[in-house]
Amino acid sequence: MKPEVTLKYLAYLRNKKANNEGFTLIELLVVVIIIGVLAAVALPNLLSQVGKARETEIKNATGTTLRSLQSYHFERQNFTSDLGNLGISFQTRYITNVTGMIVSATSALAEVTPENTNATNDGTRAYAGRIDYGSGTYAQAVCQSDVVASSIGAPASGDATTCTDGVIIR
């Protein structure tokens, strides 16, 4: 290639590059709008995930208490309404109160209800559990409320398949 043509071509490329630097205002505006729409769609999902993460403490407390009640009953042949007798402890950041009660006079079943009085602010659903003993076997069921709530009624029985105020989880 001739040196004159090469120099003219290089000068052309240099001038072309100088004119095409940066983004236009419209391009930047479109990017900002797209990011805003994505954030608006993702924010509610993020907030519900935070509530579900907080519910883990309540689920763990319910399950731990039910298993401890089963162990207590296995050793002593009756349930206790004083949860201090179970020798368990759990975090109480999102749990205001845990109640346990013996439902029947023969001590064949017990209910556990962790409660979060700040459920609306924390975004947590309520849980309640029940354990039954009969014919040498134990049956447990846990109810979860459908919506954010501070408490929920316990399942109708340990082998229940439905809850009056929510759904059964195992």
From TrEMBL:
SUPFAM superfamilies: Pili subunits. It is a single-pass membrane protein. Pfam families: N_methyl. GO terms for cellular component: membrane. InterPro entries: N_methyl_site, Pilin-like. It is found in: Membrane. The chain crosses the membrane at residues 23-47. It comes from the Bacteria. Its main location: membrane. Keywords: Membrane, Methylation, Transmembrane, Transmembrane helix. This is Prepilin-type N-terminal cleavage/methylation domain-containing protein. It comes from Cyanobacterium aponinum 0216.
